[in-house]
């Protein structure tokens, strides 16, 4: 009780903040592509005389193509490092964007989508992994949410590009919309030069001296840097008393793919199995709730709601982009203050309510013989509410959560699987939404999404423990011990852990609930 006053919250590490921003700019590539295709598809359809089936395949196929990049990114990042994998992502997308902008026919356009999709797969997998490995625990949620922030920023830029180039001649407008997407990838390649390599990757290569330098720059204190290095060495199978700058890491401890897939998929421990289900499940439900259908086909949905002018549809779509971007920024503020679980459950609850209301209003409009202004207004409001609810929780948390729960030796491949599922479901939804809407009506499609969102809420509530403030190396124990019934009668286990990271001396575990009670500096 010598010092009753609690320690002050550490300030956010500016260098880690800069690294997270630079790494997360890769996500702009996917966001821009999704946003720009929503409007460009209107003009591509007119210029090339395409059917709805061709348009939905063209729009959604990039997500399937990205599976190639996502599958390769885990092995690539373990081979050449996280930082240079980001450069690879930018270079591939640059080529894809140019091919799309120069396309003269549907087949040429599909080739461009294939190349760009590989770049998107690389970018989506590596950005959250790099950020989670660089960020201190006290601000990991805030920093790891940046990829989703930049996805939303890219979507907004895509919407604005649609509106800006919509006045050009038909054959030029959509080409400028798609081709200008090459610019962010060039800026990305330049910006990566200012980033250090991931300290966890450096340790896996035996470069302890370099890893320590990075940790000293990206941690909230020297003590935390030493603690993080010790934890990473333990996870990598290195002795804690190893102080050499360069050491030899046994091949069995390297994560270059040897044995990793077997440990992850064929013979996982109970904790690893649970982590895998959680990581795959959160990505599945993020996309199965229909968010990409809303973002990609906003102009079509607004048309169904009663807006007929192309200009007005694009303007309304810009409003969707602003709604997503504003609320994702709100989410970054609360991720490390409120925790993952409360935001996630609140977010999905809001999505369910808005989807049911949107589906109801669209069904009323569909069965009416004249314009019902209140139903049109309600549809637009609920569409904005849906994307806002998604962005404040499920959007960023899917990437934050999946990037922090996998053990170090399995992280690149585990995150790659989650990203692959994310893109597979996104592609499936994107390539079938127009056909689904014709089969069961647009309102019926959103009733279906509402049902899926309800199932996701139950899954998140019963299966996902709180990870706020936990060190990455603690996740195996956390998932091994978690029982969903505990969420009914106790607060999340991360509530006291942020301060624990600032001062870890003397903390003990009481009982079997997993709550951390710090005895240092008089903290109860």
Question: Could you explain how this protein is built, in words?
Answer:
By secondary structure, the chain is mostly helical. 73% of the residues lie in helices and 1% in strands. It has helices at residues 14-24, 27-48, 52-80, 82-101, 106-134, 140-144, 146-165, 170-179, 182-191, 199-204, 208-218, 222-235, 260-266, 270-288, 291-296, 298-305, 310-338, 340-366, 373-392, 394-405, 411-463, 475-481, 497-502; strands at residues 507-509, 516-518. A two-stranded antiparallel ribbon has the order 1-2. Strand 1 (507-509) and strand 2 (516-518) form a beta hairpin. The chain is globular and about 75 Å long. The N and C termini lie close together (10 Å). 56% of the residues are buried.
List keywords for this structure.
23 helices; two-stranded antiparallel sheet; mainly alpha; 73% helix; 1% strand; disordered C terminus; 524 residues
Quickly describe the structure.
This protein is mainly alpha-helical and 524 residues long.
Strand content range: under 5%
**Shape descriptor:** globular
What is the CA-based Rg, rounded?
23 Å
How much helical structure, as a percent, in the residues? over 70%
One letter per element, helices H and strands E, the order comes to HHHHHHHHHHHHHHHHHHHHHHHEE
Residue runs with pLDDT of under 50 for 5 or more positions: 488-524
Characterize the biggest β-sheet.
2 strands, antiparallel
Trace the largest sheet across and list its strands: 1-2
Output the number of helix runs.
23
**First-residue to last-residue Cα separation:** 10 Å
- Given helix and strand content, the structural type is mainly alpha
- Number of extended strands: 2
Round the mean pLDDT to the nearest integer and report it.
80
């Amino acid at each position: 009780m010598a010092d009753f006053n609690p320690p002050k919250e550490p300030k956010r590490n500016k260098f880690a903040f800069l690294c997270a921003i630079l790494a997360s700019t890769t996500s702009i590539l996917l966001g821009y592509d999704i946003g720009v295709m929503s409007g460009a598809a209107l003009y591509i359809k007119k210029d090339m005389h395409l059917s709805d089936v061709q348009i939905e395949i063209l729009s959604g196929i990039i997500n399937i193509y990205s599976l190639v990049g996502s599958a390769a990114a885990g092995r690539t990042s373990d081979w050449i490092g996280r930082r240079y994998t980001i450069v690879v992502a930018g270079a591939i997308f640059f080529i894809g964007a140019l091919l799309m902008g120069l396309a003269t026919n549907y087949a040429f356009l599909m080739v461009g989508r294939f190349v760009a999709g590989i770049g998107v797969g690389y970018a989506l997998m590596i950005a959250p992994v790099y950020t989670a490995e660089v960020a201190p625990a006290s601000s990991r949620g805030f920093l790891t949410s940046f990829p989703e922030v930049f996805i939303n920023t890219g979507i907004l830029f895509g919407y604005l590009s649609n509106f800006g180039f919509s006045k050009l001649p038909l054959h030029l407008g959509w080409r400028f919309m798609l081709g200008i997407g090459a610019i962010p990838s060039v800026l990305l390649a330049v910006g990566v030069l200012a980033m250090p390599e991931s300290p966890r990757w450096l340790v896996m290569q035996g470069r302890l001296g370099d890893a320590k330098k990075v940790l000293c720059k990206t941690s909230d204190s020297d003590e935390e840097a030493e603690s993080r290095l010790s934890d990473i060495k333990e996870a990598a199978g290195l002795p804690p008393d190893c102080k050499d700058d360069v050491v030899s890491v046994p091949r069995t401890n390297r994560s270059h793919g040897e044995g990793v897939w077997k440990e992850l998929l064929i013979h996982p421990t109970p904790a690893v199995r649970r982590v895998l289900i959680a990581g795959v499940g959160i990505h599945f439900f993020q996309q199965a709730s229909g968010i990409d259908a809303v973002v990609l086909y906003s102009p079509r949905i607004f048309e169904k709601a009663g807006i007929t002018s192309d200009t007005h549809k694009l303007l309304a779509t810009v409003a969707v982009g602003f709604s997503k971007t504003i609320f994702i920024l709100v989410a970054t503020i609360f991720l490390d203050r409120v925790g993952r679980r409360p935001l996630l459950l609140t977010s999905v609850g809001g999505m369910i309510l808005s989807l049911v209301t949107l589906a109801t209003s669209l069904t009323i409009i569909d069965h009416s013989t004249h314009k019902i202004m209140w139903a049109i207004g309600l549809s637009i409001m609920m569409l904005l509410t849906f994307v806002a609810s998604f962005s404040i929780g499920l959007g960023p948390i899917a990437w934050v959560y999946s990037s922090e729960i996998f053990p170090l030796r399995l992280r690149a491949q585990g995150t790659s699987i989650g990203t692959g599922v994310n893109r597979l479901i996104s592609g499936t939804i994107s390539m079938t939404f127009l056909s689904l809407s014709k089969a069961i009506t647009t309102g019926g499609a959103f009733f279906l999404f509402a049902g899926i969102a309800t199932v996701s809420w139950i899954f998140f509530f019963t299966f996902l423990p709180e990870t706020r403030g936990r060190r990455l190396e603690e996740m195996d124990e956390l998932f091994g011990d978690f029982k969903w019934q505990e969420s009914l009668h106790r607060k999340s286990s991360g509530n006291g852990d942020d301060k624990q990271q600032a001062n870890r001396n003397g903390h003990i575990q009481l009982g079997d609930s997993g709550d951390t009670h710090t005895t240092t500096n008089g903290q109860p």
